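Q: A reviewer asked whether we had any structural model of the full assembly, not just the individual parts. We don't, so I'm hoping you can provide one. Inputs are below.
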Amino acid sequence: MPWRLLRFALSKEHPEPRMFTAHEKLKPSYDAVIIGAGGHGLASAYYLARDHGIKNVAVLEKGYIGGGNTGRNTTIIRSNYLTPEGVQFYDESLRLWQDLSQDFDLNLFYSTRGHFTLAHTDSAIRTSRWRAEVNKHFGIASEVVGPDFIKKAVPQIDISCGGHAPIMGALYHAPGSVARHDAVAWGYGRGADQRGVEIHQQTEVLSIDVQGGKIKGVKTSRGYIATEKVLCAVAGSTPRILKMVEIDSPLYIHPLQAMVSEPVKPWLDPILVSGSLHIYISQSARGELVMGASLDPYEVQSTRSTLDFPEGLSAHMLDMFPFLSNVKVMRQWAGMADMTPDFAPIMGKTPVEGFYLDSGWGTWGFKATPVCGKTMSYTLANDTNHPLITGFTLDRFRNYALTGEKGAASVGH
Amino acid sequence: MMSRMHQKNGEWIDRSKAVSFSFEGKTYSGFAGDTISSAIYASGQRVMARSFKYHRPRSIMSLANHDANLIMQNGAGARFPYATPNVRADVTPLAEGMALTAVNTFGGLADDKASVLGKFARFLPVGFYYKAFHSKRLFPLWERMFRKLTGLGKVDFATPHIRTPKQYDFCDVLVIGAGASGLSAALAAADQGAEVVVVDENARAGGSMSYQPGTEDSILAKAVSHPRIRILTGTYAAGYYADHWVPLVDSEKMSKMRAKAVVFASGAFEQPAVFRNNDLPGIMLAGAAQRLIHRYGVKPMTRAVVLAANADGYRAAIDLAEQGVTVAALVDLRSSHQAGELEVAVKAKGIQVFSSACIYEAVPAADGQSVGSVRIAAFDDGVVGAVSKELECDGVVVSIGYAPAANLLYQAGTRMRFDKGLQQFVPEVLPYGVFACGRVNGVHTFASRLLDGQRAGAAAASHVGFGDGPNAVIPAEAESPSHVWPIVDHPDGKNFIDFDEDLQFKDFRNAVQEGFDNIELLKRYSTNGMGPSQGKHSNMNGLRILARLTGKEPQQVGTTTARPFYHPVPMSHLAGRGFSPERITPIHGRHEKLGAVWMSAGVWQRPEYYAQPGVERIDSIRGEAMAVRSGVGIIDVGTLGKLEVIGPDAAEFLERVYISKYAGLKVGMTRYAVMCDESGVVIDDGVVARLADDHFYFTTTTSGAATIYRELSRLNTMWKLDCGIVNHTGSFAAVNVAGPKARAVLATLTDVDLSGSAFPYLGLREGVVAGIPARLMRVGFVGEWGYEIHVPANFGGALWDALMDAGKSEGIRPFGVEAQRLLRLEKGHIIISQDTDGLTTPSEAGLDWAVKLDKLFFVGKRSLQIIAKKPLRQKLVGFMLDKDFTGAAPKECHLVIQNGKLAGRITSIAWSPSLQRHIGLVLVSPELSAVGTTLHIRLSGGDMVAAKVVPTPFYDPENLKQKEGA
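A: Here is a predicted structure for the entire assembly that you could use as a starting point for your response.
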């Protein structure tokens, strides 16, 4: 038992202060306003205050801290992307992740489990090799491995997948990890709060005041705030905010669903993804199997669940792990994924001066949380795009300079 | 000590059928109709499980799946070939030969070594695991320990893939819940003429009528015999999805019910009272005690204290007394109530009533495994007086309130409001076609529930077109059945709110102190409601606590989002039979006989090559390729997408969707066709053939067939052109006969003039081949004189046989996908999506010649015009390895490195039997694309291989093979 837990036994009162200060009112003005108190928004606030000394910041949240995709994703962290831009960006994120629990003094359960992208076809093997070669070029642990290697890591797997989708190999990424997603938002929130940032929950942005192409303020459900800098980090709600500042984007919103089983004794150590079966699975610290699949195939701005999802996902899961037949699915849920045509995010400055965008996070936003905070805070503080995000700017769509990341999406889309 | 009572009318067990089973290694006997818990409890064994965090002894609490205290593992044995984890003992029917153990114990239920964790509770406050263990070095060690402690049952890896049937079902009115209000609703709807299905998770219908004396049950018999009512018991509605789509789950399968209207008569979850040691075995909800007695003939205790805050508690006290249980006292949390007659009746049984009183704490019996006494104190809305009395008892019966079983109502989109008078959330605005009645609707009095059921049933019937709707008026409840604050603080805690997660009152206070003062944040930080029972017994108390701690009303605090599933659903039931559709061509059987080794191409199965005894794979492939080069080969290309466009605007349509021109294509000719998306990226290719002025036949790639057809249909709908598209992918078989001797072979089977002048390269002819009506196209994908022959699918096999026969003398050889890939590579033909990626434009792929920017419009034109003005990003070019190269050759997707930087990627590579060296295609930076440039290719291990950029085609660059006499 760690000594740190002693204080709980020795103290009569619960010896923990509030993680997030409750603020009665909004101030009339802030140096910067961040829309969205998810992981990305709070991380940006944290690094703005910590690294750039900008502390007079309000984070506005319509719901509650971490209530969007931060709390709805399947918590997979990896950096084995396909494009040089993506690989370097996510590699920096992974480095930040590894120290985050100690930085925060909050246990994020950051757990390195190893990540397999299973290949069932020769074209998937080719893509795996492509990713592995690009990854290795940038010093990232990434290898194409054969069925024996997979079988050793997950002895229970049916490598033939019921006979109709035999696993030919996999892209193996040893640093692949999972983390307790809610705690990430809390850690960043607490750190930002301690440094003077104000987090305002249940505060909705109603409109954004733009004059002469420049940000002047934000009208909220709790009053008007003057500010010259606004960072938008609202995932599935991005198109609504962009409408307020009259910026066109190629974003489109698809639901992404997930489900968990009842807890069972841990048996699955690594994270497995299969593009052909459109599934991914890991086992949480609570013993739940956390499972996901590809995007719903239509655009909807909604977080409702469908029955097709657990039906299809279960069927494919049993191809790989037939012995899960008796394991029960406890809960399903959905998030809204803001997709881009090239499967890379949209980050940085925009045509509106003082309006910064952190969006297009589709199905891969959680793993980018720390590096988004780092790069967006830099971008906002210096009014210059951080070098790591120059491949992700909004103008790439006008300039036909896309960053093709589709091949690295976790499952087929 | 056995506690089975004398036989009772209406009991659910069959005493003539003994069921033998074991629990924790000891043999027990129960009866058919028992649940696992009722049978074990009847034998006198109370402790059946250990709790999740502190490993405290646990027993029956709700006996209704509102808690998940009693989760067991059914081990493999003679009757059960494999073990089943996480069996819910309270509701799982007992079966012969079960070999049950408690989950989550270390060293067995009785001597669970992990129960020591309870002693460390002070060190382990809410969220403790966030506050420690996170040193970067040590976390992996801690985590390993956590992973040993965590989880419930064990998965049995010997479990086979269980395939269950799935069924679609339909009805006018689906009633969820076969209790008083549900049956009443079903009868009302069916009487109006509606076809009604009633589902209930219990083994039998009747709901609380089966265990609450004084509730009359003639409606059950009426409903059972009603011709328009189907009652499905042992079946739960697992979720509610859009448009009344409700999965009904039973032990065998999942049925998917599409109802025209849904009546929710799902009742309520009886809620626990919160006081110290409220989890001791013997402390149970009134519903559980009465279920034990009336359904299973089990005496729950000999000496009870009843803790009540509603009339049901008084009735339970009377029931217990009449069943021979000594009721030591009735403790009423309320200071005033309208018990009236009931209180008189209770007192008449000699039961002492303490009003404005609470159980301050329960005290374990000497063995620590069960409740031994309770300490009573004055209670006024949470303010607790001094302990006034300690009452010995071996059981406590709790009836302090309800929470609506509204999970599915929430999923349906119902707006709920907190009714302060009732102290319950009730529906405020119901979605279209959704109705609610009974306890879930805030109606608790028995007579009112019957009336409310009639009202909802008539309304649902009227909604689907039967009858004129309800005219009933439901009297308001005289008093709330739910106490506003059934919670007693205690300095030493162990007053549990969430039993799944061992959450105590102070955990909530501490979480709120730390800023988790929003219902969703509180849930996530404390894990309240995140366990297997998903908050059924804990959300309401959690909400009351949060409201009080933050000075808000429950209405303002709100509830967490209710998500499927209502109860967990086995993956086997969700998966059903598990379809994995695969497509095979009409010629599949022929390939099989020829020894085809199969590969998946999208949904299709295709021969990769034809295996020959004693011949290596690679030699087979090269042999097949050389047979095409030197003689004649035949390949099944029936997997290509095959479409027709017909109508006056057919040519216009093709002009718009492909980058080349087709308006001027002559009837009887074909042309290569490339398709781009709006951003100018190459997405598909094929061949367009003109059958008539207004009639084209065209192919797509195998993998693109479905999406291209869908996209073309969308565009055609949008453009409103006067033409129609037909998908013939499945209705045509197709083979390609290629090689210098192809013409000679085909000539024996057809009257079509095959001379080069009559049937030129890229020509199309319709004719008869081997007696089969056919479309013939002279194409050259593999680089030899050849014909693609398309025939109606039924004749595919006959065509193949005829060609194989006719070619015998010429040594015709079937070839597979690998040989075709090799042949086309020699010819420098690209494969879309292998030699291109998600961003490749026609210019980059060397297809500039196909782009006709002078057309008025085509998909992608605007983008290609812009891109044309920009420098190329990459270029697809051919390369060769040194003629003398030996050693490991590069593979596809190995990278080109220039001055330490990424400069390209190999998209295709193979050893060419025709050229006797390695050839390939590579996407490289434009500055490396000039013929003669040396490329440096890095292998997986880091070794570098040099290659030279060369022009393509590698083979027959003059295209002489297509010329007569050449």
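A: Points you may want to mention in the reply: The domain at 112-176+252-339 of chain A is CATH 3.30.9.10 (D-Amino Acid Oxidase; Chain A, domain 2). The mean pLDDT of chain A is 94.
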